[in-house]
Please model this.
Amino acid sequence: VQLVESGGGLAQPGGSLRLSCAASGFTFSSADMSWARQGPGKEREFVAAISWSGREEYYADSVKGRFTISRDNSKNAVYLQMNSLKPEDTAIYYCTVPGTQWSGQGTQVTVSS
Model:
């Protein structure tokens, strides 16, 4: 199993970033997918999840209305569109598969002016 995140970087408060995750080594089109994050000095926390079909989405209260998770089963990819970024969104963001220990190496997102 391989999960490779990309798209992180530095953004200003109120700005946007789009994270991508390329998945391989398992049947992506049958798997629910999720994003988690770990901020400095904090434990890893759930951010968003999407069902295998893409019909159902779930969000942490802290990102609801600002972040959007999506997927493209033809590309074995899952995305996280992050808008209205806040300094407290600063974290390493991980692509994960719910119910497993599978996780990517993470991509750093820093929100600062």
Observations:
- The chain has a mean pLDDT of 98.
- The two ends are 37 Å apart (CA to CA).
- Residues 48 and 59 are 4 Å apart (CA to CA).
